[in-house]
Amino acid sequence: MATSTLDVEAPSHDTFPINGTDYIEFYVGNAKQASVFYRAAFGFQFVAYRGPETGCRDRASYLLQQDKIRFVFTTAIRPELSDDAARISAHVQTHGDGVRDIALWVDDTRDAFEKAVERGAEPVQVPTVLQDDDGEIVIASFKIYGETVHSLVERKNYRGLFMPGFRAVQPHFAPPDVGLRYVDHCVGNVELGRMNHWVDFYAHVMGFRNLLTFDDKTISTEYSSLMSKVMANGNDRIKFPINEPAQGKRKSQIDEYLDAYKGPGVQHMALATDDIIRTVTILRDRGVEFLSVPTTYYEELQGRLGKIDEDVESLARLGILVDRDPDGYLLQIFTKPVQDRPTVFYEIIQRKGAKSFGAGNFKALFEAIEREQGLRGNL
Ligand code: FE2
Known about the structure:
The structure is a single chain. By secondary structure, this protein is an alpha+beta fold. Helices cover 24% and strands 35% of the residues. It is globular, with a radius of gyration of 20 Å. The chain binds fe (ii) ion.
């Protein structure tokens, strides 16, 4: 099993408390169609909408939810009408469909924003109050890597469904959920030499600690390699691994992403389930494509990992990977990119005690990614 470095320094002291991921907002070329894909394939429920019908003429947003996971898909309708819509349109033109905002749920947006900016965060939106009959939300945002931002969302004085401006919907098309429960971690890809910059950013601005470090010897295959550091907040609900490419014989998977996304951005989001065999079975049936690993991966599985609760045959049939750490084990699987550019993909993860990220699977996994990269002519 590959090794990783557990940080032994002092625990983090959050600059401001974060309760969890509030929502993840994607800027996409066609939010209406994205909303159908995420309902049909991933089992999200379409719960609220903002667009011309609700008085927002320049753009449309679809709020999709599954347990604690909230995704917002936003598209520009009339880029000429506002700076916001023009920015959304330009973002899609440059990056394709991608993540704009990893929004964080905080107790006090004004206080959090002031502290973050004081420590070096670059403001995008100053604290702004959004009101309707259900109360108020206070929202602000600052930049992270590339064109990605963190919004800070304070909702203690809001009783509504999501946010002023959104209207609840009850769509006829509502396929059942697939058992996805919460966002486990969000991974960013940054340029060669920039990983430590963003590690320092999360340490100094947010008070996060370096939970794990993977060097290029840990994460390398014959052809390409990468380096990664995982930053986490005090309650461990927020985990942000940051990857940068490392020198290999061929182009790193991170370089392929940076070329396709035209810069740094969110590479994958890991969504947690309590029953990965059931979740992945349904996802596959609904058209989600996963990376596959050679059947030899499963031959030595029990020898390597000891006893696990799951039936190895089912894991092998679905291509689910397993890894162990001192606290327990985890099961994980990765989708192929969910748009034509080889950029954003998903990880489905079930933790059974393990707090790590599956370093023992990196080799098998990256070889699978490289096979796909080769098929795209990008290796
Ligand atoms: Fe991951």
